[in-house]
Give the backbone structure.
Amino acid sequence: MRNKQLWLLGISMMLALTAACSKGGGEKTASAGKPATQDGKAIVTLAVRDSSPFYKVLEEKFEAKYPGIDLQVDAYKQEGETWEPGEYDEYKKTTNTALMAGKGADIIEADSLPFGEYVDKKLLVDLQGYIDQDSGIAKDDLQNNVLEAVKIKGGLYALPGGYFIRAFIGDGKVIGDTKINDSNWNWDEFAETSKDLLEKAKQNGIDTRYALANDPPELILQEMFIDSYPSWVDEAGKKARFDTPEFIGMMDKVNQMYEERIFTQEPADIGKQLFYSSALSSPRDFIDVPYTFFSEPRLLSKPHSEGPARTRIVPVSQFVIRESSPVKEDALKFISFLLSEEAQSLKERQGFSLLKSVNERALDELKKETDSGSYKLPDGKALQAVSGDEFARFRDVLNNGEQFAQLDSQVVIIVGEEMAFYFSGEKSAEEAAKLIQNRVTTYLNE
């Protein structure tokens, strides 16, 4: 039971950061003509999954800048409301049905929807052309690495409000002068390096016992799978590659690392493990998260299957615009505002900014705090100055975050469910892989 809870927590962290839809959003937009208020304002509807302070402030600020537009935010769930079992699937199905019929809100927060299908059917506006032509958008200031990463089939059909970064953090005190080629290491090399470092820690009297702890093997394999999602799932071609020697080998490698006690699913106190994989949601997290784990943290590239290391990003609140919206031109002004310094600087907005200048300003302020000795960690402890090299590393991670694949949450759930049977010993790797292959293939072709 505990393993299942941990796995579900991992699912929620990686997939439920973003979402899609509106309860009854399609009923608010007229099917013909341009809907307007009694005083002549154009009505633009924005459908979101959950109400939040960000959307309230965004609506207020947007309408102040564009007084001729009435932005109506329709949330499926209000603040404080909980999701009942099955309700999330139902709302995705409802929104998907409306969009496929060319209906729904004008703008939709749509992270977990099947973008590829909408693009194929030309249901969404390609925002890249609009951004290129809008002189009010500071194009040189955009985090274009992020915008390029979230493109689908060559077009920018969804614009995130911000983004998180998946970070890999090591214990610098144990690593010391050990050479780690993290820009190009795979999981086999990570396992061998971890063995050497654990032995080194033991010899130096450092009570470090594991490379990674607290997570069941299905969650670790799930992370590997998500990092290389396009290698295993071809959604456009409706094909999967789970019953392959490569995927089976990845399963066996994870199992071996648990059997050798390099990894453990048992809880371990901070300082008892060498590495942590964590999500960073703001510039401040570059300091707060690593220094919570270690007194001398080392920000590293995560082990990966093949090719050079690429930092994985997790878009927050991706917005799409319906091609059939009767107020498409007014809805596009929302994109301009979202990319403005005013909107990107809102404290209620989640994630790193899509503007380099906003991120740089936040890092400069952090550098001043740490240099002055006034910086306090979340636990209240003072932090010594953080080196300029570390801040250079922070900037490098920000500007090189470019790994992203639009995930289908149902595929990830299927993989997680069947992997658990393998790691519990109930099925062989080949049997589990075959079941995953059959279930995912059936799902993709439904």
